[in-house]
Task: inverse folding
């Protein structure tokens, strides 16, 4: 505070001491309007420039004290074309920093190039919009929860210019609230929430008359100390935007207790200057919006959307008092066709630069544009100077990485929300690289599986254990075949039984006999098939442990077969003789018991062999 | 007949069955994974509760600093001023698993955050666990039972409760490791292969890395070995299954820093060594029996027994001496409370104060394993027919785990897989019997099976009639698939081979009965599914750091914890110390990144007692304690405004007990009126003047004018008072978390200091209506 005053005094003396005349331009009329209703200070000056000299002049110098120039975020000059002006059509004039000779120190000069040179006696009117951040200083610097936030603003009542100013006036617009104090000099008056200075006439160059306005400013001072915006282009149809905010309340520091009770009971008295919510105006058709921080989703947000815009209202996890910090991330997807265009053989992304949030000052803004893998010939066109470099980002199965254009700018205000373009070349076929990679990866995996299951991966083909394994496999195959044959025999047995049952139902002896014959031959075939297998098993040393069981099985089966045949013959015999049912049963009963027992044994053997 | 065709058909069917069960398993995995995603869908992808936050923080450290720094990590953000050696006191299995997954995924350039990996580790591993269950049950009772058990495990509520997405806790991977270790043990037991025995030791190592519950394995397996020896089932396979596990397993376990020499020094491991000796003795006896004549053998036995007894006595004496010399008899507190359920509540309040260490109630059995509780007995019976090595293991597993679950709610988790295996066996057995009965009695099938046994035409009939387990029955009427490992199918095949009807018919139930029974079983299964889905969606998916409630105006979210932690992390100095009850320690370090005094790793009872004492002391004494600990902020959780029941006032008696356990001037009766804990006007003055009461209820009366506590459902006892040594710096939206700052020490002014001192003491003394007292600091 005191520092500020001293500095201004210094400036003032400088201004009085040095009176170099730069050119023959004079400002015949200066109107300045200062808007202090938000934390961003906007000074709109209308300058009427007149050339009194003889030389052709094509440049106008604007001067700011260094202390202000540091806070200057945005400076634009537009020609003022009278009453019927339309802001959109006005093309802004080129502005650049210059360091003219023989100028007092501690001043920064900007030179505005006029569209055409001014001859003698010509006049030209231009509007200059200067936007400052951090220009409002809280005073007192520390307040408690119940206090209101007061801020001070320093300016000069006289327009600081290297030229003579004939007529000038200044109006300072304040928020609708208490004005603590303001510097009272001549021609100063207050009208509602506006303070007016002037008119002042015929002031020499570098006139300076410091004024201080001390007023109640309860508007939230949301300052993003760092904002990283990442715009990732996917040619599958979206631009994914991720914004990492590092937010601080830049107003008066809060001191003492924070009482939730007071805040909840009288939120606009106890905690008037707290940042409660922020509004982000997202482009229309934004989708997949999220709002989170490093410990998870933040549930206090609202989203509305219509054709013109999407509005996201977010609340930080806690109301932010002076000096409190928070960090969060918002992200959303945008339809690609709204932002990506083609010109010639190049594509370009056309998207706005700054944060979508209103009235947030950004100290450092880093915009990263992540282009798809395989983009070439990248160039950027931005409407204002930015620091720029290139990085590589690896993500989602990338091989060489995606080129990332990084743009950095300090002191960003909503006025910087202008479109910038990133031009690049990209082959559409590259889109399919990653899906194809996945497909071929899976394909290779399955092929590997197939090869693994079918190929013989033993290291030594001649080792005894390997040979033994091979032999064992053969033995197993043989045993399996034996089992197969036996089970088919058993099926035939079943069928024999069935034919007997048919016989008891129909009494057709001939059919039964025919069936028997057929089965007999089948069984013979099977027993023939069995022979080589058994021979093999007997010859193989590996089969030794299993052989007795198999032989047992075969013998049992043969036994069973014989018994069945006998039974079959007996029953058929009985039918042919037309002997009584009971008699038949009596004769068969004993055989039946044996058959059942044998069958049981065969089944058991099956299980035992299976278990070996 | 068409021999080649038939065998071709068999192999085809075999392949088909394999592919089918493969797909069923894949679907089971998907089911296990997706049923656990309710928490992500209903809430968000976030780490849950308390311990997972610690694991998450450790994983973050691991991924950031690498494995070597992780082993050497001394964490100075917790247990201030003692700190904690994380690398040596943590079971690293889970962290290393998630870290490895993260590393693999990121080296494939798939940008997943550590948090995402951590959130989804548990569901992934529950899919693995259900596959492991399939393998284990298959070894015990065949593939059908395996599939059933796997599907049951995929959605058993008890396991879901510990493995929903976000529940990033040791148990999530440990249950998989547990089941898989058992599978490999059984596999080794069935095959006698040294390969599986080695794998088994490695899996056991993974289990030791993951969870303290590994002691269950190292006691259960010896018990089973002993059982096998006693019942005369000793074999070389048993030897191979057990001995490598003990040797390799113990060596590997000793590699884990947190276990270290405990693997050979504590009583939990003695059983395995004892059985190790026994199995060798038995092996030697069997060997000698083989080479000696019976007479010589008898002589040898008497000789050996007499010498052996002497040696045993000596060893036993040494053991007893060793064990007796340690104060806890060589058992850690948690293990002791397993054996003696009343141990913890008698001696260690800090263990007893955790709700999951309490014995469960009956409803919690129904809640956690639901219908499985009724199927388990049937499964046990099925295991006895016939009793094999594997099925005896399953029976032993269920019996022991039922006992342990009865001691501690937490161990219900160990019971769940056992219950699933048993129920799987029971269910698949029942379906077996019923479908077979139906098939037998369906007119078309019984007749046809005689004539068309090798034919496929009858299959379609069966397929239409059999609602459940179609593929199994299909196999059943066909010829035997002759591969070895298809025991299950084999059984079916033989049964319908009509000639053995006499024996098999005995098992056949009436058609109507079996149809109804199948319907009832399906109904039972459906009930289980409905219950599990409900449990997954409603009961167990709340992350507990975000609470929601439904009121007439829609969903209401209580996100106060994170609000407070975010405030701490952004608006306090990095090195500030935050004191809170130990429950919130892990969350504070992980979410707010601030140093805490105590946390959920309750390794130092005295330290916790110090905080407990401070919370139960009057303001000035508490301030002194906290100041001596360099504490800057005190965090309390208060549910009285919105009715959040697990707040600090409800936990307060534990603070008193734990504090009083170390500092005898804190006496529990001082806080109780006639043995009752109350905070209303009947409360004792000590209670109304303690720090916890004051910090919780500071300016509470101004919210509604009456100071009605919605949790305790009463008006509080002391309504108007001021804080002298603390100031409120933050309270969350619903007042659930309140953060106070210690006021700086006032400059000492002669004379004045004395005056204020006397006033302070009067404030903190028994006087009520503290609001009348002047604040000595102002």
Result:
């Amino acid at each position: 505070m005191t520092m500020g005053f001293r500095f201004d005094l210094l400036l003032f003396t400088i201004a009085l001491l040095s009176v170099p005349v730069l050119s023959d331009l004079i400002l015949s009329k200066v109107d300045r309007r200062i808007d202090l209703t938000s934390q961003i200070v906007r000074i709109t000056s209308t300058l009427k420039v007149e050339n009194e000299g003889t030389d052709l002049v094509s440049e106008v110098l604007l001067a700011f004290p260094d202390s202000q120039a540091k806070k200057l975020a945005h400076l634009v000059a537009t020609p003022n074309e009278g009453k019927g002006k339309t802001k959109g059509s006005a093309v802004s004039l080129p502005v650049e920093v210059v360091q003219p000779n023989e100028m007092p120190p501690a001043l920064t000069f900007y030179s505005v190039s006029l569209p055409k040179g001014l001859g003698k006696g010509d006049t030209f009117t231009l509007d200059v919009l200067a936007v400052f951040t951090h220009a409002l200083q809280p005073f007192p610097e520390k307040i408690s929860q119940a206090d209101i936030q007061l801020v001070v603003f320093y300016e000069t009542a006289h327009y600081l210019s290297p030229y003579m100013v004939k007529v000038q006036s200044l109006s300072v617009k304040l928020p609708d609230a208490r004005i603590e104090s303001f510097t009272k000099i001549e021609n100063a008056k207050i009208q509602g929430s506006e303070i007016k200075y002037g008119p002042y006439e015929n002031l020499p160059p570098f006139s300076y008359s410091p004024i201080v306005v001390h007023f109640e400013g309860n508007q939230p001072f949301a300052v993003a100390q760092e904002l990283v915006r990442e715009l990732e282009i996917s040619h599958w149809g979206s631009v994914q935007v991720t914004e990492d905010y590092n937010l601080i309340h830049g107003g008066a520091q809060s001191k003492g207790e924070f009482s939730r009770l007071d805040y909840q009971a009288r939120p606009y008295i106890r905690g008037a200057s707290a940042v409660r919510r922020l509004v982000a105006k997202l482009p229309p058709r934004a989708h997949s919006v999220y709002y989170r921080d490093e410990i998870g989703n933040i549930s206090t947000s609202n989203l509305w959307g219509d054709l013109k815009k999407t509005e996201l209202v977010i609340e930080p996890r806690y109301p932010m008092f002076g000096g409190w910090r928070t960090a969060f991330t918002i992200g959303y997807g945008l339809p690609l066709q709204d932002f990506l265009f083609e010109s010639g053989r190049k594509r370009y992304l056309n998207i706005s630069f700054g944060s979508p949030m209103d009235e947030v000052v950004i100290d450092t803004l880093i915009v990263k544009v992540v282009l798809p893998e395989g983009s070439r010939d990248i160039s950027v066109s931005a409407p204002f100077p930015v620091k720029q470099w290139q990085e590589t980002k690896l993500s989602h199965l990338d091989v060489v990485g995606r080129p990332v254009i990084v743009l950095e700018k300090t002191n960003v205000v909503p006025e910087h929300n202008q479109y910038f373009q990133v031009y690049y070349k990209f082959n559409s076929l590259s889109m399919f690289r990653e899906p194809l990679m996945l497909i071929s990866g899976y394909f290779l995996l399955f092929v590997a599986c197939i090869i693994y299951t079918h190929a013989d991966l033993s290291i030594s083909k001649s080792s005894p254990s390997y040979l033994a394994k091979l032999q064992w496999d053969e033995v197993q195959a043989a045993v399996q075949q034996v089992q197969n044959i036996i089970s088919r025999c058993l099926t035939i047995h079943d069928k024999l039984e069935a034919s007997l049952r048919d016989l008891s139902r129909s009494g057709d002896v001939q059919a039964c006999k025919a069936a028997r014959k057929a089965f007999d031959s089948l069984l013979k075939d099977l027993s023939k098939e069995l022979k080589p297998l058994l021979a093999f098993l007997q010859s193989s040393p590996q089969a030794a442990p299993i052989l007795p069981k198999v032989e047992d099985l075969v013998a049992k089966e043969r036994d069973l077969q014989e018994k069945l045949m006998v039974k079959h013959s007996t029953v058929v015999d009985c039918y042919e003789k037309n002997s009584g049912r009971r008699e038949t049963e009596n004769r068969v009963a004993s055989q039946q018991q044996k058959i059942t027992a044998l069958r049981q044994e065969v089944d058991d053997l099956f299980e035992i062999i299976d278990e070996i | 007949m068409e021999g080649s065709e038939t065998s071709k058909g068999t192999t085809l069917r075999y392949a088909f069955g394999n592919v089918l069960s493969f797909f069923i398993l894949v679907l089971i995995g998907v089911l296990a994974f997706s049923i656990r995603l309710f928490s992500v869908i209903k809430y968000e992808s976030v780490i849950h509760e308390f311990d997972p936050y610690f694991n998450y923080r450790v994983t973050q450290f691991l991924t950031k600093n690498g494995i070597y720094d992780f082993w050497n990590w001394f964490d100075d953000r917790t247990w201030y001023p003692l700190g904690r050696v994380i690398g040596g006191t943590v079971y690293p299995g889970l962290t290393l698993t998630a870290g490895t997954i993260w590393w693999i995924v990121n080296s494939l350039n798939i940008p997943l955050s550590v948090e995402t990996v951590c959130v989804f580790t548990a569901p992934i591993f529950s899919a693995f666990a259900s596959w492991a269950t399939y393998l284990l049950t298959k070894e015990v009772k065949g593939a059908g039972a395996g599939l059933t058990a796997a599907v049951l495990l995929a959605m058993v509520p008890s396991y879901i409760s510990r493995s929903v997405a976000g529940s990033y806790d040791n148990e999530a991977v440990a249950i998989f490791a547990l089941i898989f270790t058992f599978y490999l043990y059984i596999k080794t037991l069935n095959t006698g292969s040294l390969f599986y025995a080695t794998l088994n030791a490695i899996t056991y190592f993974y289990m030791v890395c993951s969870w303290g519950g590994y002691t269950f394995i190292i006691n259960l397996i010896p018990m089973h070995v002993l059982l096998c020896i006693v019942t005369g089932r000793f074999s070389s396979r048993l030897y191979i299954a057990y001995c490598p596990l003990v040797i390799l397993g113990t060596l590997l376990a000793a590699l884990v820093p947190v276990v270290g020499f405990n693997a050979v020094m504590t009583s939990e491991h003695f059983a395995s060594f004892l059985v190790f000796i026994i199995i060798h003795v038995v092996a030697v006896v069997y060997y000698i029996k083989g080479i000696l004549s019976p007479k010589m053998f008898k002589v040898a036995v008497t000789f050996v027994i007499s010498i052996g007894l002497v040696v045993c006595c000596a060893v036993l004496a040494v053991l007893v001496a060793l064990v007796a010399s340690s104060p806890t008899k060589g058992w850690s507190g948690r293990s002791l409370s397993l054996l003696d359920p009343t141990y913890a509540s008698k001696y260690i309040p800090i263990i007893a104060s955790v709700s999951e260490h309490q014995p469960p109630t009956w409803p919690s059995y129904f809640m956690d394993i639901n219908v499985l509780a009724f199927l388990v007995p049937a499964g046990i019976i099925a295991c006895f027919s016939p009793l094999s090595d594997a099925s005896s293991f399953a029976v032993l597993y269920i019996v022991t785990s039922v006992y342990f679950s009865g001691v501690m709610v937490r161990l219900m988790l160990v019971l769940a897989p056992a219950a699933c295996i048993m129920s799987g066996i029971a269910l698949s057995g029942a379906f077996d019997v019923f479908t077979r009965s139906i098939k037998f009695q369906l007119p078309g099938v019984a007749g046809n099976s005689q004539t068309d046994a090798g034919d496929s035409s009858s299959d379609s009939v069966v397929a239409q009639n059999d609602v459940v387990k179609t593929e199994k029955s299909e196999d059943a009427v066909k010829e035997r698939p002759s591969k070895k490992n298809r025991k299950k199918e084999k059984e079916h095949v033989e049964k319908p081979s009509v000639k053995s009807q006499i024996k098999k018919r005995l098992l056949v139930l009436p058609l109507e009965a079996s149809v109804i029974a199948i319907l009832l079983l399906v109904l039972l299964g459906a009930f289980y599914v409905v219950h599990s889905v409900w449990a997954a969606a409603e009961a167990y998916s709340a992350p507990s750091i975000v609470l929601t409630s439904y009121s007439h105006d829609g969903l209401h979210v209580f996100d106060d914890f994170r609000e407070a932690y975010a405030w701490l992390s952004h608006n306090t100095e990095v090195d500030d110390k935050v004191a809170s009850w130990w429950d919130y320690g892990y969350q504070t370090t992980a979410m707010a990144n601030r140093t805490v005094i105590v946390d959920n790793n309750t390794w130092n009872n005295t330290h916790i007692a110090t905080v407990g004492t401070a919370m139960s002391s009057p303001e000035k004494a508490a301030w002194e304690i906290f100041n001596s600990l360099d504490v800057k902020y005190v965090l309390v959780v208060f549910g009285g405004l919105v009715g959040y029941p697990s707040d600090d006032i409800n936990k307060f008696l534990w603070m008193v007990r734990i504090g009083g356990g170390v500092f005898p001037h804190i006496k529990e009766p001082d806080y109780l009126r006639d043995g009752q804990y109350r905070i209303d006007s009947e409360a004792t003055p000590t209670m109304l003047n303690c720090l916890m009461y004051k910090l919780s209820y500071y300016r509470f009366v101004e919210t509604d004018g009456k100071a009605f506590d919605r949790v305790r459902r009463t008006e509080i006892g002391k309504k108007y008072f001021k804080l002298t040594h603390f100031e409120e710096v933050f309270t969350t939206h619903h007042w659930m978390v309140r953060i106070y700052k210690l006021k700086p020490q006032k400059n000492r002014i002669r004379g004045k200091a004395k005056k204020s001192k006397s006033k302070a003491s009067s404030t903190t003394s028994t006087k009520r209506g503290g609001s009348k007292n002047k604040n000595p600091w102002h």
The first helix of chain A runs from residue 2 to 17. Chain A touches chain B through 52 residues (CB under 8 Å). The helical segments of chain A are 2-17, 66-71, 260-265, 433-454, 464-506, 509-539, 547-577, 581-611.
